[in-house]
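Team,

Forwarding the record for the chain on the shared tracking sheet. I've put the sequence and predicted structure together so nobody has to dig through attachments.
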Amino acid sequence: MGRLVVVSNRVADLTKSTQSGGLAVGLADALKRRGGLWVGWSGETSTDADDATPELTTAGNVAMATIPLTPDDYANYYLGFANSVLWPLFHYRLDLVDFHSEFLDSYRKVNRRFADSLLPLLKPNDTIWIHDYHLIPLASELRKRGCTQRIGFFLHIPFPPPEVLAAAPGHKWLADSFLAYDLVGFQTQTDVANLAHYAEDHMQLSAPVDGRMSGPAGDLHLACFPIGIDTQAFAELAASPADDVQVDTMRRMVLDRKQIIGVDRLDYSKGLPDRMKAFGRLLDLYPEHMKKVTFLQIAPPTREDVDAYADIRHELESLSGSINGRFADFNWTPIRYIHRSVAREKLAALYRVSRAGLVTPLRDGMNLVAKEYVAAQNPDDPGVLILSKFAGAAEELAEALIVNPYDIDAMAAAIDRALTMPIEERKERHSALYKRVAEGDALAWQKAFLDALEAAPNGITLDVA
């Protein structure tokens, strides 16, 4: 078995005992067990970045190679094409796509630079695993440079249907880049079907048979690999709450108040304004919950240099203030809104003491908060997961209360049901959910992908334009 080489936009800190984020959780253990190389952007910018060589560090048996970006490439590749074009496009938000020709030029350039930096570091029997929308064309750049190793790709976010993807400038070039991979993995069967339909319509490939498609331009191998979490470790974190969480829990018990929790990066794909509106609607339609429930929304900042993120922050601040202004009493604040990061161990404890977990994105690749909420629960008195039908996790977690995040009244009704659900039903739902989350953990995800990649035909040498 050869070395594993992981390439992603950012590199995780492997010196940490626990990781946060789907990519870090899923890959850190695989690299530590097998040994390998992790390549990515350093997070730094430099005017000399184009001439910089990768900075090499090690953590145990894992080497890490990082490269800086120029300020222009940070603006045009990262904030531009990756996060102002591909991110909204892949989340079905054509109205938020902001395309400029220099964005695509920079995206191509940075992927070429990743290939130039990676190639000298490769060994003949390496297995290369490339991650996410920042680096879709990287394999084609490596193939042009003579790379014949197995190369797999995994997309952590949704993949849009053909009619949405076709709205992007350069969409055919982007999709053709997938032909350079030995295996392309997605979070859900919906994502697999979306690329398959595009490939039939725009790439003249055959209908998929066992995930394989063929045509004049080459072959495409597609499969679904739902990402998981380190279930046991997260459950153990949740069972050891911090002192301030215990104090807050005791206070709510004395006051006979239940807590609802939402934890999301501040992103327009997460459906946060609709969620707050649904909580306000709960208090309108089910006044028996007045002074009996609080909603804790944690929304750490992200990509604040992009205008759309500043807009949603202002909307949330306005909504939380409006709802609190309508309903709050001198000893009860309905919504507690936190716009900063919270330590992972504290999040685990907060999930455990929350009667309902609201995970209601408008569109999401998987959403590991849903799985973390399930893992954190006390099996003797579990909370209820309320999950958007548009989260990738909904394909697996059918025992959650599945909702349409655009239907505010229906979400309010689901919250009411979660708050009033009998203990036996809560335990039955949680037992089924926990079993599925434990079986499909992060280790199972990376093993399934790598087993499939290493079993795939190898030696593609396509010159993808």
